[in-house]
């Protein structure tokens, strides 16, 4: 039984928040695959133009999840061209969407080697969802973000990933009220021991989880093997 007040209930509610997000990302992946297949028609292979048909699916995801900044699909090299393809739709201030351009040509300025990044390589190699961050976004402007991705399939073949970005300052309104229900210093922690979000100065976003004091608790968030967990430590009497 949980000793610190609010840990058990909060763990369940935060887990549910991530489950809904992952279910909707899986729907984005499925809808994108169907749209691209229809765009391809009788051709044996996809073209870069076919990727544009996934835009409505990304926009539907972003409309349902207003806290997310961007969403889209990424194809591994060899599916369309030798360098892969990215179609990533970003929400604008006026509510419209635009695609973000990435440099995918090696040995050029700003080359984005997405194949080596955890949010892509983990998904295509294991076929399981993954969550990466917080980290500073490539597209810029020094935004601290969290990226979640799920497999994108063409039949039984994993051809890439579908995913979304959420800026940390947008994640706070969604999950901080839940963390504050815990009568302790509490945080969501990634599989790499990085603080995703904390309700006190003890747990600062992006820092590594240090040694926890006596009386602390750790509870896994049962969310599709993402490796997330909730930690809580008694508040200091000082």
Q: Over the alpha carbons, how many angstroms does the gyration radius reach?
A: 19 Å
Numbering strands along the chain, what is their spatial order in the largest sheet?
Answer: 3-2-1-6-5-4
Please state roughly what percent of the residues sit in beta strands, choosing from under 5%, 5-15%, 15-25%, 25-35%, 35-45% or over 45%: 25-35%
Please count the beta strands (DSSP E, at least 2 residues each): 10
The number of helical runs is 5
**Unreliable sequence segments:** none
Main beta sheet: strand number and arrangement?
6 strands, antiparallel
Helix share, percent: 25-40%
What is the H/E order?
A: HHHEEEHEEEHEEEE
Shape: elongated
Span of the ends, CA to CA? 27 Å
Structural class, by secondary structure, is alpha+beta
What order do the helices and strands come in, and which of them pair?
Elements: H1 7-40, H2 48-51, H3 55-64, E1 70-75, E2 85-91, E3 97-99, H4 118-126, E4 130-136, E5 144-154, E6 157-167, H5 168-179, E7 185-189, E8 195-198, E9 217-220, E10 229-233
Antiparallel strand pairs: 1-2, 1-6, 2-3, 4-5, 5-6, 7-8, 7-10, 9-10
Helix pairs in contact: 1-3
Describe the structure.
This protein is of the alpha+beta class and 238 residues long. It is 29% helix and 26% strand. It contains five helices and ten strands, in the order H-H-H-E-E-E-H-E-E-E-H-E-E-E-E. It has a six-stranded antiparallel sheet, sandwiched between helices. A four-stranded antiparallel sheet has the order 8-7-10-9. A hairpin with a 5-residue loop joins strand 2 and strand 3 (97-99). Helix 1 packs antiparallel against helix 3 (55-64). The longest helix has 34 residues, at 7-40. The two termini are 27 Å apart. The model has no long low-confidence stretch (mean pLDDT 91).
């Amino acid at each position: 039984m949980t000793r610190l007040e609010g840990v058990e209930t909060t763990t369940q509610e935060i887990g549910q928040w991530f489950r809904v997000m992952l279910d909707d990302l899986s729907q984005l992946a499925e809808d994108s695959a169907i749209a691209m297949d229809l765009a391809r028609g009788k051709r044996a292979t996809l073209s870069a133009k076919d990727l544009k048909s996934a835009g409505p699916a990304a926009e539907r995801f972003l409309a349902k999840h207003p806290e997310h900044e961007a969403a889209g699909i990424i194809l591994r090299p060899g599916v369309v061209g030798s360098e892969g393809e990215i179609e990533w739709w970003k929400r604008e201030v006026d509510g419209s969407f635009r695609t973000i351009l990435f440099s995918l040509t090696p040995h050029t300025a700003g080359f984005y080697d997405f194949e080596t990044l955890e949010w892509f390589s983990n998904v295509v190699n294991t076929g399981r969802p993954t969550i990466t961050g917080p980290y500073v976004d490539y597209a810029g402007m020094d935004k601290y973000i969290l990226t979640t991705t799920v497999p994108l399939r063409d039949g039984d073949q994993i051809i890439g990933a579908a995913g979304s970005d959420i800026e940390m300052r947008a994640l706070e309104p969604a999950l901080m009220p839940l963390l504050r229900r815990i009568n302790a210093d509490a945080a969501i922690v990634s599989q790499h021991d990085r603080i995703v979000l904390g309700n006190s100065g003890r747990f600062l976003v992006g820092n590594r989880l240090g040694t926890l004091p006596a009386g602390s608790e750790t509870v896994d968030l049962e969310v599709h093997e993402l490796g997330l967990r909730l930690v809580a430590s008694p508040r200091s009497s000082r």
